[in-house]
Design goal:
The chain is α+β, with helices and mostly antiparallel strands. It is built from 8 helices and 9 strands. The longest helix is centred in the C-terminal third of the chain and has 21 residues.
Length: 241
């Protein structure tokens, strides 16, 4: 008796929850003996969608896999950032390299983790200009030139400060893209702890400017990881436009 042959692929997803992915896919995909889907969420906020097809003939197994992948890509669109073992920082680095653009980052709550992720990729010196960890308010004012009035009026963790950090670091480093991150990674926060996981991320790119607010759950390290991957995803989506 001939054994079935198996083909598999992993689609890597960001920007959607596990429930949102399931809803977007509907109930028609992966409901057969020859095709199986499995969702694997990660602490950094990304999700792996494992696709596995089986058939008695290799060509048929590959055809089933390709057809399923095509349908899934239509449904999830640019929330899919890579395949198999691709990392988000690799994808962003490749896009920066292709477009001959440079990036610089100003981090607060992530403590240099974004710079570390970017520079983990070989060849990142071609597009990474540098970064500053401006953890203290005075460092934000004296080194990044954030206006004290903005901090006093809007707060150290605010949309306005994240935007200023992004703009200032791009100018200082003469980079095409600047990223600013400020937030509360915990466990300290306000008196009620309501602000733990609150993060603002700004991305400045020439005439384009984007600032998003996030509410991340989890422990300190998990919040930092989620913030870094959210920042990378904001850069990626901007580069895809």
């Amino acid at each position: 008796m001939q054994n079935n042959l198996c083909k598999s692929r992993v689609l890597r997803i960001i920007g959607l929850t596990e429930k949102e992915v399931t809803t977007a896919l509907g109930g028609d995909i992966g409901k057969s003996d020859s095709l199986h889907l499995n969702l694997v969420p990660h602490p950094n906020g990304t999700i792996d969608l494992e696709i596995k097809s089986t058939a008695k003939v290799e060509r048929m197994a590959q055809a089933l896999l390709s057809a399923a992948e095509k349908e899934i890509r239509i449904k999830l669109q640019d929330n899919i950032y890579g395949i198999d073992e691709e990392r988000l920082e690799e994808v962003v680095g490749y896009l920066l390299y292709l477009r001959r653009l440079t990036i610089a980052v100003a981090e607060s709550c992530t403590g240099g983790l974004l710079s570390n992720k970017i520079t983990d990729i070989p060849g990142s010196s071609l597009y990474y200009r540098g970064g500053i960890v401006a953890y203290d308010k005075e460092v934000k004012i004296n080194l990044l030139n954030i206006q004290p009035g903005i901090i006093e009026k809007c707060g150290i963790v605010s949309r306005e400060v994240a935007g200023s950090m992004a703009k200032q670091i791009a100018q200082m480093m003469q980079a095409d893209i600047g990223v600013g991150i400020t937030g509360y990674a915990g466990p300290e926060g306000n008196a009620n702890g309501d602000d733990i996981g609150l993060v603002y991320i700004g991305v400045s790119s020439n005439d384009n400017f984007n600032i998003l607010e996030f509410r991340f759950g989890g422990e300190r390290e998990e919040i930092k990881e989620k913030a870094v991957y959210a920042a990378l995803d904001m850069v990626r989506r901007g580069l895809l436009k």
